[in-house]
Amino acid sequence: MRNGKKTVLVINGPNLNLLGTREPHLYGHETLKDVESAGAKQGEDLNANVDFFQSNWEGAIIDRIQEARGDGTDGIVINPGGFTHTSVAIRDALLGVSIPFIELHVANIHAREDWRHHSYFSDKAKAIIVGCGAAGYEYGIAHVVKKFPDRENVA
């Protein structure tokens, strides 16, 4: 919790900065800015803090996850993008900070190429949201706020 409010960190991995313009037939027309604006409004409506972070760099994502350990984050909603299928390092960071998380994918990764079916995160996620488009962010934020326990800050 931060300032008496549940705090959700939404992390977006590589290429999600192109949301709305990259393969809109798969990912829809909502941009990352649209997702962030809707999430901020949702946070206000739920009396919660919703923080957003996007990077195409694995190390930057790891740094942000580690920062969340002491900044009042109660839960993480992460769309790891292509790192879903490759990043043991991000998985280890999530496990290392002991913050519960939701794995999110805008498109249905199980309806795509076989190699996209494997995730390094699914077995540790509290929930998985797949194929709901940008609305998946709304579902993930609401779930963290309503269902995840408050965390004590750990330095």
TrEMBL record:
Listed pathway(s): Aromatic compound metabolism; 3,4-dihydroxybenzoate biosynthesis; 3,4-dihydroxybenzoate from 3-dehydroquinate: step 1/2
Site features described as Transition state stabilizer, chain residue numbers: 22
PROSITE patterns with a match to the protein in the record: DEHYDROQUINASE_II
Active site: 27 (proton acceptor), 105 (proton donor)
GO function terms (MF aspect): 3-dehydroquinate dehydratase activity
Keywords: Lyase, Quinate metabolism
InterPro entries named in the record: DHquinase_II (IPR001874), DHquinase_II_CS (IPR018509), DHquinase_II_sf (IPR036441)
The protein's Enzyme Commission number: 4.2.1.10
Catalytic activity: 3-dehydroquinate = 3-dehydroshikimate + H2O
Assembly description: Homododecamer. Adopts a ring-like structure, composed of an arrangement of two hexameric rings stacked on top of one another.
Chain's role: Is involved in the catabolism of quinate. Allows the utilization of quinate as carbon source via the beta-ketoadipate pathway.
Family assignment from sequence similarity: Belongs to the type-II 3-dehydroquinase family.
HAMAP family given in the database record: AroQ
Listed name of the protein: Catabolic 3-dehydroquinase
Organism classification: Eukaryota, Fungi, Dikarya, Ascomycota, Pezizomycotina
